[in-house]
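The protein record quoted in full:
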Amino acid sequence: MSGAALVVEVLVAFFLALFLLHRYGDFRKQQRMVLFATLLAWFLCFLIVFTLPLDVSTVGETVPSCPIHINNHALAPNVCIKPWSYIPDGILPVFWRVVYWTSQCLTWLLLPFMQSYARSGGFSISGKIKTALIENAIYYGTYLLIFCSLLIYVAVSPKLNLSWSQLQVIGITAANTWGLFLLVLLLGYGLVEIPRSYWNASCHGYLLAKTYFKAAKLMSEKTDAEENLEDVMEDVRHASEAIKYNHPLRKCIDTVLRKCPTEYQEKMGRNMDDYEDFDENRNPCPCKKNLVKLHKQAIYAVQRHNRTQVQWQMLLDEAFHLEDVAKNETSGTRHFVHSFPSSEPVGWVSSYVYTPTIEWYWECLLRRWFYRVLAILLSLFSVVVVWSECTFFSTQPVLSLFAVFIQLAEKDYNYLYIEMACFVTIFFLCYCVYSTVFRIRVFNYYYLAPHHQTDAYSLQFSGMLFCRLTPPLCLNFLGLIHMDSTISHQQRQQTAYTSIMGSMKVLSFIANGFYIYYPMLVLLLCIATYYSLGTRCLNILGFQQFIGENHMTSDLVDEGRELIRRERRKRQRTDDGENRRRDWREQYRERREKYMGRNRNAYSELKESHDSAVNSSTFAPSSGRDISDHAELLQDVEPLDFNGEDTPDSEDRRFTGGRYLSTSLSRGRIFDDV
């Protein structure tokens, strides 16, 4: 089983990153390099988080003296039982080195460049590369300035001698310092907001009011996106009319047109006359620089319009579901009824497992209590994290609760408990930080929208944040459990991860000051988040936020309620129309089948009567007069024309008995007798 745990965690990290990328990205429309870079960044970060508990437990497995008690019998002092998660020596250092430096190259070099490349409106690869290099010049220059400042500090210090390993430590320290600064901000928000969000989710009235508030804001954003798209499409139409088919920039405008929605492409195609020759003195044509800018605006406008449309439909479904829950709570049948049943066929899960009765118990009774219990547990865990962040620098006595738990497990060499405790702790920290990354929104430039509506820029920006936050998060976790000697100042065996990070003593003011005391600010950030200071400040600045008792919030909730009521009536009318059409088609099908069956019966009766008449005429003796009558009738009847050609005497052919001889008249003269 050597290395089996590492292989399992690699697979779990990969499929988790693939699932999130499928939820937020679009495999069919977005560029393959963008998807691959984002997937690689997320995968490496999840892999670091999942593998670090194995690294912590491996430190205990390599202790030279580890007496193990099995069945109350003590084994020899130098005999250790290797657990199933044991990783051989030499694998983890190489593993951490490859994973860490790959993630750092992604976040500081490749992803910023690809971010500008994907957002560029250039029409060629060289043009996009040039734009990306220009946009990242200031970005890379800032990093170079910080690195040079730290390098000068080390060079001036008389006690330090520069070497390649020390240069690596300086670079790692600079990256971790930037990441820790952002990490504490996100962690302070997530430690309070995540338990509170689960507690608010148990309050149905609060959740429904917030949904109405979101509907009002999203409708405003949806209207702005539609107006912006109309303006951009109007500019594209003017450019398309100015640039004719023989213009050198016609290929560029065709590229812009392919990025437009289908209905706009058809409209522009109908209004455009490409058969007119190009005349330089007739209409001023936009230059290539303006077309690049127009191309970028078109991509952004179409992406924003599609995102708001999908989000509006998802929000409507959520609002209708919450209103259905409110109606079903007062139902005495204990049978959940949907206002708009799904058009998809019912699967075996809905038929046998998640039946309407079980759905009623979950939605109307059990769900609120489950969320409340979960919120209480997460709140307790958040309190433990805040306490440990403020006291992890104390080693005598040990005040960090996570360090106490790990040291108790080390005394009994309970490797499974060490791994589980480390995994639960670091998983909670990552959930608080990463969920905040998925929740935050920087206007319309960075926004992770589910249902495949996230643009390439936001995907790559999230990959950059993950790669910058994960290494300092892991170092902070090792400091909480006193496994980092730089912070705990204890002489003990280091993990393979800290050996790759190097000794932070090269920059003592960061190792002994910033890394120890800056995480204490998480307490102040938690207090600010608890009282919603950031939300109130944004509301004062004009960004509408959901605040319980506020006049603007009440107005937006009322507006959203009216919008949802209007959309409900519209969807109800649409469903009623579909039901009427479906009933009409069924009735028409029944009448048609009944009519066809009646015709088949009449035809069979007529055929039987004809066959009987033929048989009687064949076997019964006939007189000469009957034979002559039959001959006269056959002479009067003209041959039928089945080729559809009209004959002069083919009109209005009617015989005695009120029957037509032939009803297959030509199509051109079928209504001549009307």
Observations:
- The longest helix spans residues 551-619.
- Residues 148 and 154 are 10 Å apart (CA to CA).
- DSSP finds 22 helices and six strands in the chain.
- The longest strand covers residues 69-70.
